[in-house]
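Thread: Newbie trying to understand structure tokens

Hi all, I'm a second-year student working on a class project, and my supervisor (Dr. K.) asked me to get a predicted structure for one chain before our next meeting. I've only ever worked with sequences, so writing a 3D structure as a token string is new to me. If someone could post the tokens and maybe explain what I'm looking at, I'd be very grateful. Here's the chain:
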Amino acid sequence: MSVYKCVLFDLDHTLWDYETNSAATLRELFIYHRLNEKGISSFEDLFTTFVEINTHLWDQYDTGKIHKDVIRFERFHKILLALGIDDYDLSLTLSNDYVSESPKKGALMPNAIAILDHLKANYPLYIITNGFEEIQSTKLTSSGIIHYFESVVTSARAGHKKPAKEIFEFTLAENGFSASEAIMVGDNLLTDIAGARNASIATVYFNPNKIVHQEKVDYEIQDLMELKNII
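---
Reply by user tm_fold:
Sure, no problem. This is what the structure looks like when written as tokens:
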């Protein structure tokens, strides 16, 4: 019998397939805005540049170096500049369209539904995310998984963002659990794993790409179905 009484999940990259959904949205924007006529040679160039700059900006946001508005209003300007296009108005249009359309995409990580079905029968499930408040419910609804979760705790609602222990403590206190009764599943070694450890919560590092690391984790999996062996 598992010692855990609740399961905490990260959303992006853990359950919601951020890369696939981003790629689908960017491909639509590339075609709709005729970006090939504006100097971007291919969708592949756009997507590769997006991944590089977006990852860097989210790393800066997670470590407190930038405000979320930088991602919201500067991300696509930086992307366009890297592709040789200096057009701030176009960057705002792309940003607005991306933020509007991407959360509506419903691709999930492999076996997400299967493991949620398995866990929901025995445990209350919760989302803890640094993602922006206004779009998390759209992602959960669009992907058809919102009904699995008792609540969604965003950094805005908790007043702290991962890896601060306070966002985990907020989630547990709100739902009547102690740290020893919870286990956190996430793909980010800093925000999810180190963050949960800061709150004395057991951790499962979801590492489908088999990234080599030195971080201390309680469990590590490459497929979500491996959670059956842990919880």
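A couple of things are worth pointing out once you decode it. The first strand starts at residue 6 and ends at 9. The two ends are 8 Å apart (CA to CA). Feel free to ask follow-ups in this thread.
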